[in-house]
Each structure stands twice: as structure tokens, then as C-alpha cells.
Design goal:
Shape: globular
Number of strands: 0
Number of helices: 5
Structural class: mainly alpha
Helix content: 55-70%
Radius of gyration: 13 Å
Largest sheet: none
């Protein structure tokens, strides 16, 4: 299956790029999230990726690369049309699903 194209909206495109890049460096082993980041990813992954849910999770997130992606995802979810944000939000969902320990 071919991944969806990067979004045309510049903020959504930046989110897509950042989420895909972080997933790539994670799978390559050059970035390892802290336990706090893994737990945060699990908390975020349990909810719907909506602006309010993501914004609330940002306030509780440990600093780091994952927090930067989640903060940008909150902005995209709140300001970008859903059809233009879909590919970026899917990239975020994939990242969270891989990083979260989901016990």
C-alpha cells in the first residue's frame, strides 16, 4: 500500500515530515525515547487525535522530540482542515503506535 502524499498545507506538511522523520530515526535506532516519552505516547495514543485531546496532553508531556511532534499535531488538529491534515495525523498515529509500550 502506498502511503498518502504529504499534505499541501505548510503546517500539516511540517508535521508529516517531523512525524515520519522521528519514526525513521526510531526504527533506525538513532533515537530512543525515554520511559516518560513512551508512557506519554501511550497516553496520547489511547485518545482521539483531536485538538483538545492533544493540547491537554502537551501540558503533561515530558520535554523532548516526541513532545515537539505532539505540540505541532495539536496545532494542526486545531487549525488545518481535516482533509488537508489527514496524512499528517496518520503519520502521528503511526509514530505513537510504534513508540507506545501499550501494556
Amino acid at each position: 500500500m502506498t502511503p498518502p502524499p504529504a499534505p499541501a498545507d505548510p503546517t500539516a506538511a511540517a508535521l508529516h515530515r517531523d512525524a515520519v522523520t522521528l519514526l525513521e530515526v526510531y526504527t533506525a535506532g538513532t533515537w530512543t525515547p525515554t520511559q516518560a516519552e513512551r508512557e506519554h505516547a501511550e497516553d496520547v495514543a489511547r485518545g482521539h487525535l483531536t485538538g483538545p485531546w492533544l493540547r491537554a496532553s502537551v501540558r503533561q508531556s515530558p520535554p523532548g522530540r516526541l513532545a515537539d511532534v505532539v505540540a505541532l499535531a495539536a496545532a494542526v488538529a486545531e487549525t488545518v482542515a481535516q482533509d488537508q491534515a489527514a496524512a499528517a495525523m496518520l503519520a502521528v498515529r503511526r509514530l505513537l503506535d510504534v513508540v507506545a509500550p501499550l501494556s
